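Progress note, project year one: complex with pyridoxal-5'-phosphate.
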Amino acid sequence: MIAEAAGATAELVIDLSALRANWRLLADKVAPVECAAVIKADGYGIGLEPAARALWAEGCRTFFVARLSEGVRARATLPQATIYMLDGLTPGAAATLKAHALRPALGAMEEIAEWGDAGPAALHFDTGMNRLGLAPSEVGVALAALGAKPTLVMSHFTSSEFPDATDNARQEAAFAAVEKEIRDIPASLCNSSGIFLASHPWRDMVRPGYALYGGNPTPHDTNPMRAVAHLTATMLKVRTVPRGDCVGYNRTWTARRDSRIAIVGVGYADGVPRGAMGTDDKRGPDVMIGDARCPIVGRVSMDLIAIDATDARAGDVGRGAPVEFLGARIGVDEFAAHAGTIGYEILTGLGRRYRRVYRGG
Ligand SMILES: *Cc1c(COP(=O)(O)O)cnc(C)c1O
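Model obtained:
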């Protein structure tokens, strides 16, 4: 039983001590370079405000968000922090940014013109992603148009989780060309995986997100980070399914033996992607029942998932027994890989129907 959550079908425990330890590990690794924190998308699904407070308490002073609404929330939580907006200056937002002392990462000449002298701002250069950001060739006109010195120049890797990707060196070179045109302005290039590149392109500030929340920044290697999100669901019913019977919508999974099937109360409405289904052709992601790895079987429903608990210890299977979906043993990267997605999407999709418990911090 999930003792302190009687009646809840699933409990999401957010370990803020692990979040702090993850930030500390990265900050120590890059010191004396500044380690900022990206808390966009509701702090990668774990909650923007608790994440911001815990990171601030650990010593983080610079934060990045995407949306205006996130910037306003971050400012309300951290009156003293430096907060950058990765969306840049969205049309018409200058007065709101200024009112909340939020700094846009300006990524277009139109944004620079609209911002005028509304306050401190970063310049964001695109070195290969072809999304937001100024062209490196615009550095001269951008600096002239902004008038005041930008407080940061930044760019973003396309493929830093792949150390051998040719984009990494190409982007570093393109960014170095921008840096040659600027003097005495802090620079930032690294997301989580960028921090682990052998060339250490840390510059003056790194901007991790994913790794802080327990994602593996080195997917080719063991995960140096601690799990932050721990998701446990409760068995609502256990049934025996005879060999040859199917489970779930559209009969996509057939029992190859007489099976004990545990039904738990999480579904795609809770952020478990439909790609996490187990079919006759493809094993679904494993979850933990006691010490046993057991696969998801059949379609993921809106509210329910079936698990083949046949190989679990009998004493661990029964109404009210816990099933670990995410935690120290099932990482977000592993779960995502078997669900046909990436851990970023698992984290940012964490559902709103869970009983949420914050620990540490
Ligand atoms: C989201 C984001 C980050 C953080 O990336 P992670 O891979 O989650 O560490 C850093 N910089 C920019 C521009 C981003 O959009």
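The mean pLDDT is 96.
The longest strand covers residues 229-241.
No further modelling is planned for this target in the current period.
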